[in-house]
Amino acid sequence: MLDEVDHGLIHALHIDGRAPFSRIAAVLDVSTQTVARRYRRLRDAAGLRVVGLADPAHAAHAQWLVRLTAGPQAAQDLARALARRADTSWVKLASGGTEIVAVVHAATSHALLLHDIPRTAAVTAVSAHHLLHMYLGGPTAWRGRTSTLSPAQRERLEPAFTGPGQALADSDGALLKALQRDGRASLGDLAAATGWAPATVARRLADLRAGGAVFFDVEVDDTLLGVTTQALLWMSVEPAHLDRVASTLAEHHELAFVAATTGPTNLVAQALCPDPASLHRYLTRRLGALETIRSLETAPVMQTVKAVGPAARLPPPGRGPAPGTPRSAR
C-alpha cells in the first residue's frame, strides 16, 4: 500500500503532470530527492505514468465506446489487437473475460467500427455508443486519487498561464504524440520529437494548456489505492432527467467515469470500490435511490489491457495480467 507521500505525489501529478519535483517536494514538505525516488518507485512497481492528452471537448474527432463479445481466448486476442491501435484507449476485458470495452477515437466513425474490427465467427456481438458528453473523466480525475492535498497545497501546484490559450492544430501532431508517450518528457526531448526549438515547444505547450486543449492524466495501479472491484455500469435514464442524474453521479466518490451515450442505454459509468460488498452497497443504496434510472446492467471489469495512453500494457499470452494491472479486478 501507499503512504501519505505517495498519495500526495499522485495527487500533485493530477494537478500538474509536468510540475518540477522541487515544487512538489516543497508542497509535500519533503526533499526533492524523496519525491524523485518515490516517483521512480511508483513508476516501476505501480505502473505510474503521466500522459499528455487532447481534451475530448476540444478534439476534432469523435469518441465511441465499443462493446464486443467473443469467446474467452478470442476476446483476449482481440483486446490485444485493439490495444495496439493508435486510435484506441481504455481497452478492458469485462463480464468474465468474454466482453471487450474500448474507447475509439476517430475523425470519422467508419474506419474501425465498420471495416477494421474482425468480422469472424469468434465475435458474437458488436455495439458502438457515441460518447455525447462526459460528466466525469478526462481532465477530471477520480476523487480516490485527488483527496490528499489541502486546498492551500492544491493552489500552490496549480499551473499559472498567461494569455487566452490556443486550440490544437494539425502541426501539433508530433508534440501530442510525444506527450502521449511521456507527459513529463523534457523540453529537449519534445524539441527533438517535433523539430522545434525548446523555447517554441515551451510556448506552444503553455498556449495549449492555457486553452484547455491539452491536459495531463496519470496512470497508476489502483489496487494500491485500495481498489479491488471495478465495474462498468450501463444505465437507461429518462431523457428529461438524464442531465440531472449524470451530474449527481459525477459527485459520487465511487465513480471515476460518467458519460452520456447513444444506444439502448444512455448513461455509462465506471465504479471503483474496495470490495464486492462495497459495490453492492453502492448499487442498492445510492443508485437504487435514484428512481429515474429505469434499468441497470453491471459488467465486472476483469482486466485493463490499455489505459489512457497509447502504449498498451499487454501481458504475454498465457501469462496473466500485465505489470501494474490490478490483480483481482481491473
UniProtKB/TrEMBL annotation:
Is Transcription found in the keyword set? yes
Instruction: Return the annotated region ranges for Disordered.
Output: 308-330
Q: InterPro entries given for it?
A: AsnC-type_HTH_dom, Dimeric_a/b-barrel, Tscrpt_reg_AsnC-like, Tscrpt_reg_AsnC/Lrp_C, WH-like_DNA-bd_sf, WH_DNA-bd_sf
* The HTH asnC-type domain, residue ranges: 2-43, 171-209
- What are the UniProt keywords, alphabetically? DNA-binding, Transcription, Transcription regulation
Q: Give me the segments passing through the membrane.
A: none
Q: Any keyword GTP-binding?
A: no
Domain of life the protein comes from:
Bacteria
Per the database record, which ranges form the Transcription regulator AsnC/Lrp ligand binding domain?
A: 235-304
A Pfam family found in this protein is: AsnC_trans_reg
Which residue intervals are annotated with compositional bias (Pro residues) in the record?
313-324
- Its name, as the record gives it, is Lrp/AsnC family transcriptional regulator
